[in-house]
Amino acid sequence: MKKQIGVIFGSRSCEREVSIISAVQLMRFADSEKYDIIPVYIDEHGSWYTGDPLKEIRSYQPFRPDMNGIVKVFPDLSSNSGALLSVSKGTGLFAKEKVEIAARVDVFIIVMHGMNGEDGTLQGLLELANIPYTSTGVAGSALGMDKIMMKQFFRGANLPVLPGEWFTRREFNADCKAIQEKVKNSLGFPVFVKPANLGSSIGVSRADNEEELKDSLELAFEYDRRVLVEKGLEKPIELNCSVLGYDGELLASPIEMPLNQDEFLDFRDKYLGGGGSKGMASLSRVLPAPIEDSLKNSIQEMSKQIFRLMDCKGVVRIDYMFDRVGEKLYITEINTIPGSLAFYLWEKDGLPYTKLIDRMIECAEKAHADKNHSNYAYTSDILKSASFGSKGAKGAKGSKGK
Predict the structure, then answer these.
(1) Which residues contact 362 (CB under 8 A, 6 or more apart)?
(2) What pTM, to 2 d.p., does this model score?
(3) Is residue 263 pLDDT above 60, yes or no?
């Protein structure tokens, strides 16, 4: 019997379109002999839909919820159900609405980028529903999404990160000049200004002086109430490495070196420059990167270390900057659900996308089995002896202690 695989994508995030591209790619490569693929699209308003038309990119140009074959659904959060439910209207004068099962999912492949999907919120929902899913868990996903917390975590783990400062929208509105002065004295120029909880380089810009810094902060604060400012490097080498696996069974991919004449890959470079329908796979790159074996080995080992520290699973991509002047490596960020699921890095290592999807599903099922193997059913006799007097349970205990 085929496994029922729900591919969940979209969301209210401004990275929704990137998610659609990644999901349609994945659905085309999934092995139809092994799986029934069930697309689950979350639109910009947060409504859930399923139906075969959602497997085609043209269904989003634009998306119409009344399109033939598309059904609005919502998840059944009962443990182990995996059902996607729909509501249909009955017929007749006194007919009531009926709830029906539109599909039932064995494993979810999460293809979300950004907030409301990559940040631990969707992972938490699936944990409540007790359904296997492919991405990193709640804590690692939340940490990987927030650039400020991520940087503090890496620094606490003695991993190399660029110097940085962070600010809130309230601080910026109260005293923009003070922020500019702090950045100038602490970091100097150039700097990169980034919304704390966005990916795909949305809202990210470079500032080479105080005036540009003000503009960059204004842009970043449009997207988030917390903003990270990082010290910039002069003509660094960008290097990316993917890690695949779960628990101690980890593989590190070949390392890529994205190519960009402007030293900074913005959203247009990543997703529009080489053909929007191909996502990150269309980006110009050198693969494998022309770097020394010692640097390659350092990146791969560090990537696996980060994967373990954050208890990741499935596929992640970790991005680095190499300072050619100081010959030092810095972690830029981890993408717990990378664009195009980083399949192009694994193809170079002899693992086709179809097999990569198999491995992701296997990791999801192993993690789910481990979770269910743990004992969550510890019981005690505390309720048998519980009683509530006029002061309540705590009051009664306190009186006895006196």
Answers:
(1) none
(2) 0.88
(3) no
d(CA 195, CA 401) in angstroms, rounded, equals 52
pLDDT in tens, 82-103: 999 999 887 777 778 899 999 9
Cβ(21)–Cβ(271) under 8 Å? yes
SS3 174: helix
Question: Whole-angstrom distance between the N-terminal and C-terminal Cα of the chain?
Answer: 65
Least confident of 194-198, 224-228, 351-355: 194-198
**DSSP-derived secondary structure letter, 78:** S
The 10s digit of each residue's pLDDT in 295-305 is: 999 999 999 99
CATH 3.30.1490.20 positions along the chain are 164-231
DSSP E strands: which ranges in 221-265? 226-231, 237-246, 249-252, 257-258
**According to CATH, what is the number of the domain 164-231?**
3.30.1490.20
Q: Are strands 3-10 and 35-42 parallel, antiparallel or unpaired?
A: parallel
Three-class secondary structure of residue 338 per DSSP: coil
Cβ–Cβ under 8 Å, residues 331 and 230:
no
Pick the CATH number of 3-133 from 3.30.710.10, 3.10.310.30, 3.40.50.20, 1.10.10.10: 3.40.50.20
Cross-strand bridge partners of residue 85:
74, 101
The amino acid at 203: G
Measure CA 314 to chain center: 12
Residue 333's SS3 state is: strand
Rounded mean pLDDT, 119-127: 97
Candidates 3.30.870.10, 3.40.190.170, 3.40.50.300, 3.30.470.20; CATH matching 144-160+235-365: 3.30.470.20
Sign of CA dihedral 250, 337, 289, 195: negative
